[in-house]
Amino acid sequence: MVTTDTVTSNEIYEDELFEKVGIKKELSEHMGRPALTYWAEVWRRFRKNKLAITGLIMLCIVTLLTIIGPTLSGHDYQYMDSSIRSQTPSASHWFGTDRMGRDIFTRVSVGGRISLIIGLLCTLVMFTIGSILGAIAGLKGGWVDDLIMRICEFVGNLPYLIIVVILSMVMGRGLFSLVFALSFISWVGTTRMVRGQILQIKEQDFVKAAAALGADSKRIIIKHLFPNTLGIIMVTITMAVPGFILGEAFLSYIGLGIRPPETSWGALAAAGQERLMFYPHELFFPSLMLVITILSFHLIGDGLSDALDPKLKD
Amino acid sequence: MAKERILEVENLTVAFKTYGGSVQAVRGTDFYLDKGETLAIVGESGCGKTVTAKAIMGLLPIDNTTIGNENSKIMFNGRNLIKLTEGELADLRGKEISMIFQDPMTSLNPTMRIGEQIAESVLIHNQISKEKAKEIAIKMLKLVQIPNPEERYKQYPFEFSGGMRQRVMIAIALACDPKILIADEPTTALDVTIQAQIMKLINELKKDLDTGVILVTHDLGVVAGAADRIIVMYAGKIVESGRTEDIFYNLKHPYTYALLQSVPKLTKDTSKKLYSLQGTPPDLIDPPKGCGFAPRCDFAMKICSIKTPEKTTFAEGHEAYCWLHHEKANTQGVPELILTRGESSGK
Amino acid sequence: MGRFILKRTAYGLITLFLIITATFFLISAAPGDPIAAKVEVMPERAQEVIRAKYGLDQPTYQRYFIYMKNLITTGDFGESVIYTGRSVNDIIRDNAPISAKIGIIALFFQITLGVLLGMIAALNRDKFSDHFIRVSVVLAICVPSFVFAALLQYFIGFKWGITPIFGWGSFKHYILPVAVYAIGGIASYAKFMRNSTLSVMNEDYVLTARAKGCRRARTVRKHIFRNSLIPIVTMTGPAIAGIFAGSFIIERLFSIPGLGQYYVKAVSDTDYTMVLGLTIFFAILYVIALILVDILYGVVDPRIKIAKGE
Fold it and tell me: Could C207 and B109 be called an inter-chain contact, meaning their C-beta atoms sit closer than 8 Å?
């Protein structure tokens, strides 16, 4: 059966079909789809992710609200009017009023500024300390690297919340004390990540070759570090911000949050919690803003990491 | 000498669904395996050889793969494997047909003792006690020439070297005395000296146990000493098949020719540059009409990219699919070796 | 293995020492001196006793040595400055069990349900159950625990009256706090377990298992499950250690007389000695938990046991 005749020789082929053509370069070296640049490709994939885009839009709306909210409502966030205490939402007070008669919509807008600023500042501090230490460890190597990694191991093994509580208790309740307390021991992950990236780049052949030729390999590493790491950095940052916003809320709940008359979503929610059974709207609106903001950051972060690494998807 | 035919594959097709479209990884292959023989499937990466091997085992991902059409058959023991359920296949796997993989470093469960991994295979397929399974596992470790099998039984994969792990993989595969062993690039990830040891071990065990072996590889050097017959695949199709000596000394397809030219030989004139095949295999999402190799073929004719070439039979079991063997072919510049006609069928 | 535990314990002790020292000096440097202020208004005799015991008239570093000596030799965590005569040790003895109970029950649900849901999602990838679990996980991670607590208190406790809104005592009092405590953890365990299972499912050894004839159930049980648990164990360390820290807000929201509530109260009362004592207690638990988890890690992953045992 192997030798069965399968040739369909009854067909007659034109002679010209047997004209010699040889190798067809353009066909044999196809490159597949036209290549987009890496970031254009990332952006294309991100844009296709409906959830991530929804997150981005929600975040923009929330941010805009914290900026123009007080102007929109026309109320002052500190102005107390004892005649309109604890009102439910109405045409003049969209989110109702609190027990002092202050407009909750305005307070939520202003509180959002503090929450967002704390989230962003803490992330910035975390990231700055983390990348400087990570870069030093990765570039210097040797005992410096050992020392920094030991410190990381030590700091990473500290109980985060308790350290934050002690620090903010000692430092007080101002904006910068809060940022300091929340970000003081938060940089370990970033340090390890940056160091890991540098070591990885160091291992690449062209860097080794450059070093062997006596070139300043540090410059090369730094130059390649940024584009290589940018993706992971963006994901880390998006995922870190909601953590710090929640951290501030946590401190507000145990009475260590931002000092009045300043306020934040956490402080507003904590105040609302006490009167939950009778005036649930006081807790509802700040909580809603918190949830929307955190959800947005998560959706954006997820979308980013999917867009950066499509392998994970299939 | 009438050999017992243990596996017969007819018109096997495999297609994967992907984002870009359906990849036609295997596009109708026919071959067979006799008891106790070694059949090598050779080709570049992406030519469909591993997919063919996994299709026989039923190991391709179920969700996005289409295996075979109404004419396709993988006949084993009178049963068409394509038609079997996952459960029926599981009963066959490891017992009747076994497989070892390319990378022994990642192919063993890191948290399970070596011995238990061998014994598991025995336990699944036989109604025996754990003690008996352990005995068999230790016997298998001995068989694949691992020293101190009793000690080694209790160890974990990370305590074994790459070559040792591949021996363990072979022990797992052969523990139930299967009729067919599929070895997918069994030596590619190993050091050259270890490669020879592993191939020697596979050959010896094959003879002792009378197992049929399907050796999937891109390395013609590995094939030369081990295979009885060779199938050369390109772009999801068989381009040439025959006995090992046919393929090495009497090849009939330009692709086989190119493959062999690119193998370094000790006897060759070292002043000459080693032949290297230009270009890349075609995109199988949109498989080419005609011969898949045409765009890279020095001797391609117009017809090659229009019509699929017909089968030409040269000697018993030696076949090639190439238009050069048509009577009207333009054979200018084609090496004499390819052109020499054996007995041609149909003309 | 013995050497590894020893080394890990020594390391833990150093960590502890540093935490205690840092906390002590930080708190001593805190604005105002409530300790001195408090002592001033005490009766003469009480003042003398306190001064003698804690060396309040001496410089900070002297007080530090006295405190450390008391802590190490008698296990004395100190005494409240606000509520005279109440020692930190009493508070711990009376209230720690309550926090521990809630924390352990919640942790149990976190791990079991989280691992289970993560496995289900991974094994049914891209099917309905996977999508459902993933959406729930994102929501659960994004809703802060106090919001979740408020929802449960308002509806289950207040509107429908199924459980008490807050307080402590009967079995029913456990339901809401444990649910609030567990939900976030369940979500993160499920998320990690899903990822970890998916990556294990792509490993070559799972293909080997199938190639030797393991059916799906056996492949999952024998080859996928244990290997996907390895990263989960690392997560469990801080979780066990965080049992008490996690109780801060929940005990406050539900008025549960646990250690967390006392800690928060001490913080808002600026009861510095109480804060110091409880912080040290939390730190000790934390360090012990981390050591235990390291050992557990070795049990799950043989590579680590051997490597560290050498």
Answer: no
